[in-house]
Each structure stands twice: as C-alpha cells, then as structure tokens.
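1st attempt posting a full record on here, be nice pls
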Amino acid sequence: MPVGGVFVIKDNQVLLIKRGGEPNKGDWSYPAGYLEYNEKPEEGAARELEEETGLKADPENLELVASIQLEHPDKYVVGNAYTISFDEVEGHVRAGDDAEDARFWTPKNMEASIEEMGLEIIAGESNRTGVRLHYL
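the predicted structure (as tokens):
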C-alpha cells in the first residue's frame, strides 16, 4: 500500500503532526497518508499535507528524500518522504483532518521528547532545504 508524506522545513525546524487516529494514535509523525487510486505519490503527499496541516504545496516543488518500508500492524506499506521549505507553501499551520496537533520542532526538542513522540520515521537528506533528516 503506497503512502506519501512531506517534511516541511522552517528555520532548521520540521513540521510534525500528532496523529488523531489509528494506527499509532497520539504519536508524532510527519504529515502523511495513503495515496488514492491513480494518484501520483507527490500529489498524494501534497494532498495529505493540506488535509493534516492546512498548508498547500505545489507537488512539483516537493523533493524526494526517502522511499522506505513502514511498519504497520496488518499491511505492507511503502512510503515516499518528501521535503519542502516553509517559504514554498501557502496557508497557516493548523491541525486538521485526523491530526490532534501540528507544530514545528527543533532537532533538540525532538530528542528531548522522543518518548512522547513515538517517532520512528525521519530519513533522508535534502539538497534544497539543506537539512539532513535521520532515524531517531
């Protein structure tokens, strides 16, 4: 099952959402979700970003940073992770769709909150945003 998601980078911070639904309700994640039938991965990632955070991104401006197999209790899931600079999106950050919260995190905040976050997926490197994302 294909998934697309977007890391939005602002001043060396990354936008994460607190999941409002299963799986992993209450965990922090980058905005992501399942692709719709015949939807291109970057289009699905941009759609999920808007649904979960209110931010609009042009799919052509998304930079692929990783393709990874994701853990899921009952499905085989492969995800494409993209990155984009906050300067390239439109709108205001808000928790939407199945997100309980949406906010920017610094790497230091993420490390200090790793237990609360339940984060598993941060991978890849972006040449455009200059940010290296990694497994925590």
